[in-house]
Amino acid sequence: MPREELGVRSHMATRDVSPVPPRWDRKMQQRLARGEAAALGELYDRYASLVHGLAHRVLGDERAADTLTRDVFAHVWEHPDTYDPRQGPLRSWVAALTRRLAVQRLRATETAALARGGPGSTEDLERKVRRASVAARADYIVQSMPAPLRAALESAYFKRRDYRQTAADLGVTEDEARRRLRLGLQLLATAQDAAAPGSRGAPPEIGGAA
């Protein structure tokens, strides 16, 4: 399928809120490898909002996120064999691919701006890229958390509630609220770890499995 046929529908796509069984991932990879256009449409409907959201988090621009969304699904269509179901869920692989492409695009854009005499330095550029990468990974981690952990974090950090208020909001004990917050923060800390230079948790180069 040509890239231009991959219209961006991320705002209308069904939001991916539930996991799919490993069998679905395997069958999807096989269908894509056979060149089934319908399979690409199903994949797009499930993951377009995820891809667009992560791309926008890194690039900070709607049009750039639209373009990157097309590029991600074009890559999946053209190289379905680069996903190995044995290495993890297709959702995680798509997210890692998106972050990697988005970071590459951001670095290229910012490097070009510096070359034209724009403000800042190479160090500023790398800090910006790292912050964007960490933020995108943190967004993905929060989306992927079990609902109880996500609800605790949202109460404590977005609604500015303390752990006692969070416990009351969620109808759990204060000890349980603290436990959920601690686990949620531990998961979020992996976003920093994965973005560190040379980290084994960093997204792979394009063409590798996540």
Key traits:
single chain, mainly alpha, 210 residues, 8 helices, disordered C terminus, disordered N terminus
Largest sheet: none
Number of strands: 0
Which H/E pattern describes the elements? HHHHHHHH
Distance between the termini: 24 Å
Strand content: under 5%
The averaged pLDDT comes out at: 81
The helix tally amounts to 8
Large-scale geometry: flat
List unreliable stretches of 5+ residues: 2-17, 197-210
Structural class: mainly alpha
Helix content: 55-70%
Radius of gyration, CA atoms, in whole angstroms: 19 Å
Protein name: Sigma-70 family RNA polymerase sigma factor
Keywords: Sigma factor, Transcription, Transcription regulation
InterPro entries: RNA_pol_sigma-70-like, RNA_pol_sigma-70_dom, RNA_pol_sigma70_r2, RNA_pol_sigma_r2, RNA_pol_sigma_r3/r4-like, WH-like_DNA-bd_sf
Domain RNA polymerase sigma-70 region: 43-108
Q: What features would you describe in this structure?
A:
The protein is mainly α. It has eight helices and no strands. Helix 2 packs antiparallel against helix 3 and helix 7 crosses helix 8. InterPro entries: RNA_pol_sigma-70-like, RNA_pol_sigma-70_dom, RNA_pol_sigma70_r2, RNA_pol_sigma_r2, RNA_pol_sigma_r3/r4-like, WH-like_DNA-bd_sf. Belongs to the sigma-70 factor family. ECF subfamily. This is Sigma-70 family RNA polymerase sigma factor. Keywords: Sigma factor, Transcription, Transcription regulation. It comes from Streptomyces thermocarboxydovorans.
